[in-house]
Design goal:
Layout lengths: L5 H10 L3 E6 L4 E4 L1 H7 L3 H4 L25 H8 L3 E8 L5 E12 L5 E10 L6 H10 L12 H18 L3 E8 L2 H8 L1 H18 L5 E4 L4 E7 L4 H14 L1 E4 L2 E4 L2 E6 L7 H18 L7 E2 L4
Parallel strand pairs: 11-12
Antiparallel strand pairs: 1-2, 1-5, 3-4, 4-5, 6-8, 6-11, 7-8, 9-10
Length: about 300
């Protein structure tokens, strides 16, 4: 067999560790390689023959905007034949969002007509990502074994440290609490294991979308707490987080269940104690949980 044999090229393409898939003019997936399986969690039999606009991967940009409709880069390449490159998030088969860098190129026939397109993508995780930082915490017993985030005790320690920086050096930050919506009703319908799986998916998504300077940890029962460093408005904090969580989901007994969370965010005021900051944030959260409308949207936030 010659190295120029088409079967050789196909074998190399199929075995690449970078994700590669190809679509025809109708965006029907015709090829899905090993790298695409590894990164996305979807096997070939899950995707071949399906239309990518079915929001299988649910691509979104860094503001949490869904790209699977009019802004789909693959669709745009099919229309104009131009190459495209961008950093996006895709929804892993397990339901959380994963940062990737992707490239789209047109596939042309002998006459130069666009007959399809291919997209290659690879994980876009920093070398000092949360997985690396959490290894040391796990070694010292500071990691929650179920959710995979710093435990409540360590989160409280980080909160006290951050409040100290604010009191002494006026370094701004915000506290964001993410709570499982309708906690009791959800657990009654699906069980605590499903609630934990939902929190795991939220934790994985948020670990991938928050900035390296931010902190995410476990809080009270079925709650997560994020420390967001810097001077940012409430809208610029809660809205993107709600969008990202709204695109995430879990798979439970054959059903795809969207994340149902509520968010509360508060900034410390001069002279305020950590206890009063947490009381204000928790009161806001309790008010949202009392008055929320669970039908739309899945993720509630201040101002909804």
């Amino acid at each position: 067999m010659s190295l120029l044999d088409p079967d050789v090229f196909r074998y190399v393409l199929e075995s690449l560790q970078a994700g590669v898939y190809m679509v025809d003019r109708s965006r029907r997936i015709l090829c899905w390689n090993d790298g695409a399986e590894r990164i996305s969690g979807y096997l070939r039999q899950d995707v071949l023959g399906r239309i990518c606009e079915e929001s299988l991967l649910m691509h979104c940009d860094e503001q949490g905007t869904d790209l699977c409709d009019s802004a789909c880069p693959l669709s745009q390449t099919l229309l104009d034949g131009k190459k495209r490159e961008m950093s996006v998030y895709l929804r892993h088969k397990s339901g959380h969002l994963l940062p990737v860098h992707m490239w789209c190129v047109a596939i042309r026939d002998a006459h130069g007509n666009v007959i399809g397109a291919s997209q290659s993508f690879d994980e876009h995780k920093p070398a000092d990502g949360p997985e690396v930082r959490y290894q040391e915490l796990a070694a010292h017993g500071c990691l929650d074994a179920v959710i995979g985030l710093p435990n409540v005790a360590f989160t409280r320690t980080r909160l006290r440290e951050q409040m100290g920086r604010f009191s002494e050096h006026h370094i701004p930050f915000s506290v964001l609490i993410i709570s499982l919506a309708a906690d009791k009703a959800f657990r009654a319908a699906h069980g605590q294991a499903a609630a934990e799986r939902m929190l795991q998916s939220a934790a994985q998504t948020l670990s991938n979308v928050l900035r390296p300077a931010d902190f995410l940890g476990c809080w009270e029962r079925n709650e997560l707490l994020a420390i967001l460093v810097g001077n940012r408005t409430k809208g610029s904090l809660a809205q993107p987080v709600a969008k990202f969580l709204g695109l995430s989901q879990i798979h439970w007994w054959g059903d795809s269940v969207p994340l149902s969370m509520v968010l509360a965010v508060a900034e410390p005021e001069p002279g305020e104690t950590l206890e009063s900051l947490l009381v204000r944030t928790q009161a806001q959260l309790n008010n949202l949980e009392t008055n929320k409308h669970l039908a739309t949207p899945p993720c509630s936030q201040p101002g909804d």
